[in-house]
Design a protein that fits this description.
This protein has 2 domains: about 300 residues, no CATH class; about 100 residues, no CATH class. Helix 7 packs across helix 8. The protein is globular. The protein starts with 12 loop residues before the first helix and ends with a helix. The chain is α+β, with helices and mostly antiparallel strands and about 450 residues long. The chain is built from 15 helices and 15 strands. The strands form 4 sheets. A 9-stranded mixed sheet has the order 1-11-12-13-10-9-2-3-4, sandwiched between helices. A hairpin with a 5-residue loop joins strand 14 and strand 15. The relative contact order is 0.14.
């Protein structure tokens, strides 16, 4: 690690490049590379042609995207930081989107700007390193309290606490076992004394551990607090929270729609498709949420089928990652208008060389959706996820089990855009209105944070 303003020797890498031990090491490693002709033939045969069926598409597209930023409160004390997580929820009505062009060959920029009126965002401000909140004694407890307060205060109906994001956590927790309910959950452990199976209720007011009498919070169930440190960056915790809250929001909307519209929720949900930036997966200590989402969607889809409606529609669009990079590598060999339901054998043979999951299906502990590789008739490539077909979850690699696949592909084709490489409008716009850029967005947050000293 260099001193401040100390620069590395520009030729120091030559010792590494010319080191025989390094060369031998690299020769004994396997990694992603251009496929051989035989492999190309095997790969291209896995892609099947897409049928251009006429389908009835949902009219309401809700796109969800998040970003996070950690700002220093004082320039001369850079390790004193506050964290921000921003989650945007953008509603696009397909009819409005198709009217953007009007009678012109180009999209009307004023109408595009009007889409922002259907955008709402939530910003979580969380104490990060070397910062305490209210009367808490340390960073970890401060983070826990601020997070729980935010989840409790963010509500669909400001007058009804049961419409809060925190109440949605209780719903998700109720699918973990037969003990938790929509009003009560058992925490894995107390963050202070590590006592296990601590009961918390969906109520207002302070709750304490019966063993150590320290505060406990319902949101402790996400276990984000386990990644909090006092005097170092907590970007990892902010990233983990951003990841899980992006997936909780769609469940929250579905839950509130069902609770508040018992007579019409089926029709409402049948006309919605959710877009999420990234795979349909939750990582880290909050990964248990993915299995609760699977069970919740399975239950809701049974209700949809009883009314002869399609399953709940969610698309996770991957703009980066191993699969995305490999698809770009082989793109030139893949025909337009074809798709492939990614199998584990393909993933482990060509893309990933981490075999620790062999014996289990990839993503068993994190994913609630299946990866697809799709090349549109315009030549754009997309890696996207859709929820597993729960009645055929054991055969999740069989593309025939995804009866709504034609609808998903038509939605993607409907919203293709050239704003970014292989982009779709909902994700592009949600990111535009949500991303915290380093300049000027991050700079603004730095300045805002520094006002704490005035």
């Amino acid at each position: 690690m260099p001193y401040k303003n100390e620069y590395a020797d520009k030729s120091s890498h030559s010792d590494i490049v010319n080191n025989l031990d390094i060369k031998n090491f690299l020769q004994n490693c396997s990694f992603m590379k251009e496929p051989t002709q035989q492999e190309i033939d095997e790969i291209t045969n896995k892609f099947v042609e897409v049928t251009n069926a006429e389908v009835n598409l949902p009219q309401n597209i809700i796109s969800i995207d998040g970003s996070y930023y950690e700002a220093s409160v004082r320039k001369d004390i850079p390790y004193t930081r506050v964290g921000y997580v921003k989650v945007g929820n953008l509603l696009i009505k397909r009819n409005d989107f198709h009217s953007l062009k009007g009678n012109m060959n180009f999209i009307n920029p004023f109408k595009v700007a009007a889409l922002k009126e259907n955008n709402s965002s939530v910003t979580f401000a969380l104490p990060s390193s070397n910062m305490k909140y209210k009367d808490e004694l340390n960073v970890r407890d401060s983070f826990r309290r601020a997070l729980d307060e935010a989840l409790y205060e963010i509500r669909t109906n400001p007058e009804d606490a049961k419409t809060s994001l925190r109440s949605t956590l209780f719903l998700l927790s109720s699918y973990r076992d037969n003990v938790n309910t929509r009003d009560k959950m058992l925490l894995f452990k107390c963050p202070t004394c590590n006592a296990e199976k601590i009961e918390v209720m969906d109520i207002e007011g302070t709750q304490v551990c019966p063993y150590c009498q320290n505060k406990i919070y319902p949101s402790d169930c996400l276990r984000i607090w386990e990644e909090i440190s006092d005097s170092v960056s907590n970007q990892s915790a902010l990233n983990r929270f951003m990841n899980v809250i992006e997936h909780i929001f769609p469940i929250h909307y579905m839950r509130v729609v069902r609770d508040m519209n018992p007579e019409s929720y089926i029709e409402i949900l049948n006309n919605i498709c959710f877009f999420i930036d990234g795979p349909l997966a939750i990582f880290g200590n909050a990964a248990w949420v993915h299995n609760s989402i699977i069970k919740f969607l399975s239950e809701l889809n049974l209700e949809m089928k009883e009314h002869h409606k399609r399953d709940i529609m969610i698309i996770g669009l991957q703009k980066s990652g191993y699969v995305h990079d490999y698809f770009r590598l082989i793109n030139k060999y893949i025909k337009n208008n074809t798709i492939y339901c990614l199998e584990d054998d393909f993933r482990y043979n060509y893309i990933l060389f981490d075999r620790k999951s062999v014996g289990k299906s990839f993503g068993d502990e994190t994913y609630y959706g299946q990866d697809f590789l799709y090349k549109s008739n315009t030549g754009k490539t997309f890696v996207f996820d859709i929820p597993y077909n729960y009645s055929n979850e054991q055969n999740k690699f069989d593309i025939k089990n995804y009866e709504n696949l034609d609808i998903y592909l038509n939605i993607i084709k409907d919203f293709e855009c050239d704003l970014y490489e292989n982009a779709v409008v909902p994700i592009a716009l949600a990111h535009k209105y949500t991303a915290i850029s380093l300049e000027p967005g991050g700079k603004v947050l730095d300045l805002l944070s520094k006002t704490l000293n005035r």
